[in-house]
Amino acid sequence: MSYEGISDEELEEIKRRKLLELQRRLLEEERRRRLEKELEARKQAILRRILTPRALERLYNVKLIRPDIATYVEEQLIALAQTGRIKIPIDDETLKTILAEIYARTRKEFKIRIKEK
């Protein structure tokens, strides 16, 4: 890239605009991360209220292995609890039943076929 024909003032203006854009992006990213943290903290507070300690521990363990299922269960439990459609507190046995049903629906079966030539 040739900078011939661009004055020092123009170059400084380009640098200044790029710096401002970078600062704006960094601030936006920081704001987004802070919002995500706040939402996660609210979600965890609700889960502590609607799950027994043992059920909450089980859900955390599921999250380590299958974060997709755990997130889905968390969202569904919160929605059901907020609408009053599920009995609170949810104990470990109830959570195990819910997880088993979801696992059965989302489980993928793989079949391996070997073709001989």
Provide a quick synopsis of the model:
This protein is mainly alpha-helical. 74% of the residues lie in helices and 0% in strands. It has a single domain, classed as Orthogonal Bundle (Helicase, Ruva Protein, domain 3), CATH 1.10.8.140.
**Tally of extended strands?**
0
CATH superfamily: PDCD5, DNA-binding domain
Q: From N to C, what is the helix and strand string?
A: HHHH
- Provide the β-strand percentage band: under 5%
Specify the CATH class.
Mainly Alpha
CA(first)-CA(last) distance: 57 Å
Question: Given the C-alpha coordinates, what overall shape results?
Answer: flat
Task: Describe the largest sheet.
Answer: none
Mean of all residue-level pLDDT scores: 91
Category from helices, strands and their pairing: mainly alpha
Helix content: over 70%
Radius of gyration: 25 Å
The number of distinct structural domains comes to 1
Q: What is the CATH topology descriptor?
A: Helicase, Ruva Protein, domain 3
Low-pLDDT residue spans: none
CATH architecture: Orthogonal Bundle
How many helices?
A: 4
